[in-house]
Design a protein that fits this description.
Layout: H1 2-12, E1 16-17, H2 38-45, H3 52-60, E2 63-64, H4 69-80, H5 83-88, H6 91-95, H7 102-125, H8 132-143, E3 150-156, E4 162-170, H9 180-189, E5 194-200, H10 210-224, E6 229-236, E7 242-243
Parallel strand pairs: 5-6
Antiparallel strand pairs: 1-2, 3-4, 3-5, 6-7
Length: about 250
């Protein structure tokens, strides 16, 4: 009886699609025409030519019983309601899905971190003022997934090149919580000539509050006393980050 129960549990485990066509299931990607296989299309046409499901399928590498890697990718995108929620999912939500385990979660986090570091290295080589869109995209990549408010600074040298980004406060971001003294202290520690303030709105709405505007004014005045210039205050939410300079709020 014990042996029967043990075999019953084993039979219930997901069987990975290693390339052969599963019994009564989806056709293996290996049996597709070469021109239709995601990996071959990526190598020939570039990653930009692939759909979200095809890119995710290449990352997954294998499917599960009854589903090819592409079928599984489509299922996961449907379950998470899109690519972004899937990429932003915590480990518990991610690994609750069939075909996704801790190893895949670790691989995904590594890929995303490499992308962020690539953006950071590119910014360090270039002038932040010459490529403000890239700066905002970098800050968005850093803060968009944060479940709570985070306030940080992008410190720049006298040629407006990025020195480093630092998170200074977490929690409620307002004029009474963010201390100018701490921001000034970190700017001087990095010997920064200027900086870009940044925080996120977990609600997704980037419209600055009265508190955001007041905080920016206080920090700008405090930093000017040590000859550090505030170039912008970027708010990250859903969609494009908001620049307070471009909105005429600084």
């Amino acid at each position: 009886m014990v042996a029967q129960k043990r075999w019953a549990k084993i039979a219930q485990r997901p069987q990975w699609n290693s390339g052969a066509q599963p019994h009564g299931g989806a056709m293996s990607i290996r049996s597709w025409p070469a021109a239709e296989r995601p990996r071959e299309r990526l190598l020939e046409l570039g990653a930009g030519s692939l759909s979200d499901a095809e890119l995710l399928a290449i990352f997954l590498r294998t499917g599960v019983a009854g589903k090819s890697a592409v079928d599984l990718a489509r299922h996961l995108l449907n379950q998470f309601d899109g690519l972004r929620p899937l990429l932003d999912a915590d480990m518990s939500s991610f690994t609750s899905q069939l075909g996704l385990g801790p190893a895949k979660f670790a691989q995904l986090q590594a890929v995303m971190e490499m992308a962020r570091r690539h953006m950071a290295e590119t910014l360090r080589r270039d002038s932040a003022l010459e490529n403000p869109t890239q700066v905002r995209n970098y800050l968005k990549a850093l803060l968009r997934h944060e479940p709570h408010e985070v306030f940080g600074c992008l410190f720049l040298d006298n040629k407006h090149r990025v020195m480093t980004f630092e998170v200074l406060f977490r929690g409620t971001i307002n004029a009474s919580y963010v201390h100018p003294r701490q921001v000034v202290k970190r700017a001087m520690a990095h010997n920064a000539a200027s900086l870009i303030l940044c925080h996120n709105h977990p609600s997704g709405i980037t419209t600055p509050s009265r508190s955001d505007i007041d905080l920016t004014k206080r920090l700008k005045e405090a930093l000017l006393l040590v000859d550090v210039h505030v170039l912008d205050h970027v708010i990250v939410g859903d969609g494009e980050p908001l620049s307070m300079v471009e909105r005429g709020l600084m």
